[in-house]
UniProtKB/TrEMBL annotation:
Cross-referenced InterPro entries: Cyt_c-like_dom (IPR009056), Cyt_c-like_dom_sf (IPR036909)
Signal peptide per UniProt: 1-19
One Pfam family it belongs to: Cytochrome_CBB3
UniProt region (Disordered), positions on chain: 25-57
Gene Ontology molecular function: electron transfer activity; heme binding; metal ion binding
Domain Cytochrome c: 56-152
Organism this protein belongs to: Prosthecochloris aestuarii (strain DSM 271 / SK 413)
This protein's UniProt keywords: Heme, Iron, Metal-binding, Signal
Protein name: Cytochrome c class I
């Protein structure tokens, strides 16, 4: 019996570490120096300041979702261990009338999750609990939140998440 508890404890600790690490900011393993987002040097040595189209912000949000959120949040129902993205997008559109307010609320929640900051109902909180705080910077959190807002599907029925 003691051996079973020891093995179970080890598995539980490993699973907890995996879940917590999925929500942390990845460290760069590249030996290449970081390129400034506001200034790049071309092969000819001239500086260029790239424009950031809306699709780039959305793409960055998707990449961040894939790196940090996808382990818990599926895109569609059924839910994994957290509400699906399409359900969250629908809920935020239901609660907030505009993108800026919703993104601001999402960022505040992801930085420091609490029941008071949650836009989900009590049933969702009881079912999934609170997520761990995200260790991403404000710009990254804003990118993920904006991307999440853009995943709205008017055909999606929120009852699928219940």
């Amino acid at each position: 019996m003691k051996r079973i508890l020891t093995v179970f404890s080890g598995v539980l600790i490993a699973a907890s570490a995996l879940i917590c690490s999925s929500c942390s900011k990845p460290e760069s393993t590249s030996d290449q120096p970081a390129v400034s987002e506001t200034q790049q040097t071309t092969a000819s040595g001239t500086d260029q300041s790239p424009e950031t189209p809306a699709s780039t912000v959305s793409a960055d949000g998707k990449v961040l979702y894939e790196q940090h959120c996808q382990v818990c949040h599926s895109m569609q129902a059924p839910a994994k261990t957290a509400p699906p993205i399409i359900g969250l997008s629908s809920r935020y559109r239901q609660v907030f009338g505009n993108r800026d307010e919703a993104v601001s609320a999402m960022v505040a929640f992801m930085k420091s999750p609490s029941a008071e900051k949650s836009s989900l109902g009590p049933n969702a909180l009881n079912r999934f609990g609170l997520m761990p705080a995200m260790t991403l910077g404000d710009e990254e959190l804003t990118s993920v939140a904006g991307w999440l807002w853009d995943q709205y599907d008017p055909e999606f029925d929120l009852d699928q998440c219940r």
